[in-house]
Amino acid sequence: MVKACLFDLDGVIVDTAKYHYLAWRRLANELGFEFTEEDNERLKGVSRMKSLEILLEIGGVSFDEETKEAMAAKKNAWYVEYISKMDSSEVLPGVIDFLTSLRENGIKISLGSVSKNAMIILKNTDVDKYFDAVIDGTKITHAKPDPEVFLKGAEELGVDPKECVVFEDAQAGIEAAINAGMHSVGVGSPEILGKADFVISSFNEMSLNRLKF
Fold first, then answer.
1. pLDDT(190) > 90
2. Which fold has domain 17-83?
3. Which EC main class describes this enzyme (predicted)?
């Protein structure tokens, strides 16, 4: 019996990828070169500093470490500026209905995200009220596929990992769920998320009946 559902944030509850892209493009423009959406594909699932290295490589420019740290901080400040303007209209389809049904049926809910800006997004989109626990980048030391973010969520909820289901849009996230000994549901492409128990294209396809493993 499933007792808890754990959710990644970006690409599952909301889509913040566009704001990362706008911030990186703004930095590239400031440095005097173009950064396209195709270029941005190379940054998905990559750390902030590694993303910066890729961007600088695309622009054919290089800087010392101190300057790069300042650039990464500037990019993050712009990203926070963008997400601070988010509202409930940006919650992905079917999410609110599913979260509501979980709460009505006594199933606990946790966030499991490596984002350090998770609370800003949850509050601005008005979904923070659905979560019993929030484990984000400020509370963990290991990135996915390490299971830390999900194991901490289960611990905070007081639920055994094998009674948890993780919802993820990234391969590393599905692997983190498997490493935690949890069930997993992929949100997105079956080709990428094939290790999940099953894959949905959106939460409009999700119901409590599908939580029986």
1. yes
2. DNA polymerase; domain 1 (1.10.150)
3. isomerase
Note the pLDDT of residue 45. 67
Which one from 10, 39, 136, 169 is the annotated catalytic residue?
10
Question: What percent of the chain clears pLDDT 90, i.e. is strictly above it?
Answer: 90
Higher pLDDT, 46 or 37: 37
pTM summary value: 0.88
Phi, psi of 50 (to 5 degrees): -65, -40
Domain ranges of the chain: 4-14+88-211, 17-83
CATH topology of domain 4-14+88-211: Rossmann fold (3.40.50)
- pLDDT at 17 > cutoff 90: no
Active site residue 10: yes
Catalytic residue among 8, 39, 136, 169: 8
Q: Is 8 one of the catalytic residues?
A: yes
CA of 142: how far to CAs of 58, 139, 153, in Å? 28, 10, 14
